[in-house]
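Re-run with default settings, no changes from the original entry. Doing this only to confirm the output is reproducible before filing.
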Amino acid sequence: MGFMCGRYVMSKATGDLLNHFEAKEVEGSPPPPSWNVAPTQSVPIVAERLDEGTLDRHLLVARWGLVPSWAKDIKIGSKLINARSESILEKPSFRKAAVKRRAIIPAEGYYEWQKTEDGKKIPNYLYSDKEPLLGFAGLYEWWADPTLPEDDPERWLLSCTVLTTTTQDALGHVHDRSPVIIPRDRFAEWLDPDLTGKDDIQHLLDSLPEPTLTPRIVSPRVNSVRNNGPELIEPAEPAAE
């Protein structure tokens, strides 16, 4: 199924995010810690914003599931939680954001479901032994709700999507698609608003290294969005004989 399952962990404090991603400001109210972030929920994202003539990195709060500016209603977002990195520069839903509105989506790790021969799906939690936070490559978009008046503060929705890629590394047995992860030393490159050439953006994506992540089998409790808490990322108890 790959990352289309779309669940990840984001439990760090806002201060830790500002520090790790070198962001200056927080816009909006960051969501509470979650060990089971699911599509259509509010998530923190990092983007470059022009603030009184100065370009600064800000921490914003976006709905996970991209709603393009031309969308008729918000429902399309639940289908656009992921964007294939190979085609973002062509797809009408993503091509404008790929050039103008790139973001980093902070995560501590994410879940994958590994299919067994008897058709069961075993949840794995993938994380980095070296980095406390990962930066998923993302895109964001603003959408005006046509049902609300122009001066309504709720009229403008900020939404985002996570880029995915094929997985070539040793973890290939766990999944076929995985999030595109931007290494810490390349955050500035990905967020650079002057990077607008399609070939340059594609080259940057193609040149990213494979992340080294550790998979851990976890409890099937993660399968339900209703379950949340740090116990979800603990190693699963071995099944009784």
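Helices lie at 14-20, 95-100, 187-191, 198-206. The longest helix spans residues 198-206.
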